[in-house]
Amino acid sequence: MTSIDEIGVQVEATHGNVRPILNEVIHAIDRLLDDNIPTTIDLAGLPFGPGELDELEATLGNGELVATLDALGSSRIRETTYPGVWWIEHRNVHDEVVGRYLEVTRLPEILCSQDADIMAGRARLRDAFE
Amino acid sequence: MDLLEFARGPALQVAVYILVAGTIWRIVGIVLLSKKPDYSEARGSGGLGAALKVIWTRAFTAEPFKKATLYPKIMAYVMHIGLFATIFLFTPHIVFFEGWTGFDWPGLPNSAIFFIAVATVVSGFALIIRRMTSPVLKLISNFDDYFSWFVTMLPLITGLLIPVRALFRYEDLLAIHILSVALLLIWLPFGKLGHTFLVFITRGTTGMVFERRGAKT
Amino acid sequence: MKHRPTVGEILQAKGVSRRGFLKYCATTASLLALPPSMIPRIAEAIENARRPSVIWLSFQECTGCTESLTRSASPTVEGLIFDAISLDYHHTLQAASGEQAEAARHAAMEENDGSYLVLVDGSIPMANPGYSTIAGISNYDMLMETVKGAAAVVAIGSCAAFGGLPGADPNPTGAVAVQDLVTDKPVINVPGCPPIPMVMTAVLSQFLTFGKIPDLDKHGRPLAFFGNTIHDRCYRRPFYEQGKFAESFDDKGAKAGWCLYKLGCKGPTTYNACATVKWNSGTSFPIESGHPCLGCSEPRFWDKGGFYEPLSTGKFGSGAKVAGAAVAGVALGAVAAAAGRRRQAKYTKEA
Amino acid sequence: MTTVDGRHTLDREAERIAYKPPEIRHDKQGDMSTEERVDHAMHHFVKNFNTQIASYLDGCLHCGMCADACHYHVRTDDPRYTPIWKIELFKQAYKREVGPFAFFYRLFGFKKKVTVDQLEEWQHLLYDSCTVCGRCSLVCPMGIDIAGMVSMARHGMFKAGLVPHELHETAKRAAETGSPLGITPEKFEERLEWMADEHEVDIPLDVEKADVLAVMSSIEIQKYPQSMAATAKILNAAGESWTFRTDGFEATNFGMLSGNTEWQKEASMKLIDAAIKIGAKTLVLPECGHAYMAMRWMGANMYGKPLPFKVQHISEYLADALNTGKIKVKKVDKSVTYHDPCQVSRRGGATQAAREVLKHLGVDFREMPNGGDYNWCCGGGGGVVTIKRADELRHRVFKLKMDQVEATEADELLSSCANCRQSFDDSQEHFSWDYTMGSLMEMVAENLEEQTS
Prior knowledge:
heterotetramer; B: 217 residues; Fumarate Reductase Cytochrome B subunit; globular; C: 351 residues; alpha/beta; Rossmann fold; Cytochrome-c3 Hydrogenase, Chain A, domain 2; 5-stranded parallel beta sheet; two-stranded antiparallel sheet; 16 helices; 9 strands
């Protein structure tokens, strides 16, 4: 136990900031299904009290799919228990979180191979085997 | 000095000085006028108790008049209770008074105050519409009545704009709100809003005079 | 004039993939508080942005702003930006010193005339130029000389933006803010004591990304970071609405994390991004640690009453003056009554 | 009790077409220039502005609720009959001349000087349409005594020579002859003798020393002379040492009603001097409302010091005499309602006396709805009954009174005020109404039980 844990501060479980986001997610799913419009929610722009981010993450839970990306630090792209709702977390090379997003989409753009990278890869492949 | 500092500082200070001076001016100006001795044989004491009794009882309408005065009375009650609650039970205001007097007391949740303030504004408009349409009130009203209404409603409305962030930034709204309060404080002793303190003198006087006769107060 | 590479070229040279670049753009958008829908435009802009020259001037300051900036976990996304800028002059960070340093400043000014950025931290003493000098040059002279060819000036920290602590009452050095002296160039204020490091870098990356001055509020602050009050974005705001307040620093309310309004929190009148960007790589911010906001990004925050004085507290003036007003009231009332009685007596006699 | 058709013809006529106030005649007395009239009005308004009146005039909120208490406004919906509006000029004078901010009102002209045209216009409001009944004072959320100020405003109107002619002439006659109806001491003596004969009762007159001085109202002497006999019967039965006096018999005070303070004082001093002369312990006032106000509450102030005797309204005297067993009465098997004279009950404080008397009489007492202190006025108080041109309006407001009386369905209507009785009789005739007002005192006198001791 570190001395920080001895400070008599209790963290109240909720400040009521989670529920509105869940509402927003439901609306985003509506948009995706009805109009095929994906939505990205930047969690950095929203007020969270201590523990609330964890609460949100726990509420959404872990789904079937997790992908990790290694570019300028690692990133985790994870589908939540609610299909179409993705939890995306970007870290820098020091493994510090630099961005958190909820994406409501069929496949997050970042998972798709990018034409520029495909072309660069093709060039490398040619160099190696031609 | 920005607007908020001006409002909270010199504007409020000057308003308080004028409020204090004006209030005492008016009271002393009335109290030091001549007094007629009453040599008639008293039936009641005509003392302070009678004054206090009427100060309290005239807050309520006597049965025979209830029906005729129901509408304005209800609106006036909403107005007065609403003003009391918004002024004295809104936490930021309590903090304000605490900074001044050193005392604090429990307040109501802000959302409750918001609705009370809206009800108060509604009652204010109900009363001013009545004033502008009732033949009696149209006849007897003067500038004082309309201006006093205006300076009373202004802090309520500017106060309500703060949480909805309408038109201006928070600190500008707060400054405007405080300036409107300053205007209210400055006007208060001189116009009919003086009833905040005159009510004690006027009702008290009647209480003493009529109780002395044993007559209905 | 040497070639200044675009950011796209720099990233490519470092072997960053397109995916990595997209990630970078996403975090940049997040940093700039731009909606995620802006990411493609950001990507396009950043790819073609050119590395600008930056001259950093430090005047009457405590180096806290620089400390803050260097704590922004470099080399990270922000670090990349610093790779993307050419910091040609900075007392604390540059290796060169003395005449070499001044030569570097002049060289950068000449090379990038009309396009370089000047960053300033600290206020400028106007009471006596001797109060603060660098290489024998007064702060005022150095500022005016340096900004002449600048594209824009960024005032970093509350001292540069508003005068800060040196400018606080009674302001012995006659300290003034950059915007008081520089009137013919765009001045971007990034106040705070210190400013949030991410906000500093974000403002730079915004300039870098879009090549123009961001939208500013009435105090010259970028609206992207200073558009909302701490109070509006505070996670404790629901307690304010419910009227739940901590009354002291160790009471039940404080432990339960209730609103700090009554303890003097200046959140409602303070525009900054602390509540969302937070400090120490997004760990926390003062209110989350249980301390009211001091309002350090607001003009003259030192002189705005006690830090622990609730915001709504008005200044009622001294008791003596109120008593004086009361005495004046008595006098006026007595005069009025006497005048009234005199008129009465006169009329009674005439009648 | 519901012969509506024959009764309300005129009134119903009036309601069918919108009410138009009659052409108002502005009466003037004396040859004064307009400036003189204004000056006089001002001076005599201003004299009244003491602390009490100032607190009233400063305290008004312009809420207009007094209009809902005033029979004139309730019956006509004419906003000019709002009680506080009736003293607008008085208030204007206060704000301009004496109020705490009078200097500024004059400096900036916030309140203009009262003009003679205004005064003329207000003659109708201050005299024709106010009976000084004081009902408005009870509804006022600030407790302002408007009726009292109407009386004061009349001081200025009188001095400006702007009193309705009939009232002015009545008051003048009272000042000159000692009685508003011109009843001289000789006439009084004559009528006393007549009543003594007719009712076979001893009526002591001009006794040198007596404990009780009884006085009468001219209305009674002239129109209801039996009340003199009734007074005598009661005082005799009570075994009082009492007398009427030819040098002080007139209880009415038209000086007060019209607004002439000198005349008011003269009239009061006559009674006071007579009472002192005979060493009276009690001055018993007759069944007259305003006489009670004039003597019970203003008499000592006219005298300038406390009176050396007690002042009682006859209903108070009766209540005391019955409570102490000085007199006894037979039970009366009737249902009775009682009309409270405003100046005795609401404004005089003797509301309960009449009710105690009625209890002794054992009648089935039926209080009018909103009766007692909230009673509607008869419409004739404050001198209004003398003003001919106000008759139409007076009859109009009497409707309220009729409804109030009828709601009780009582056999008998009693009161204790000859002036109320007079205006009831007049209105009764006007409406062919089937209630006749009786006198409380007369009912007691008729039902006195012979003392057995």
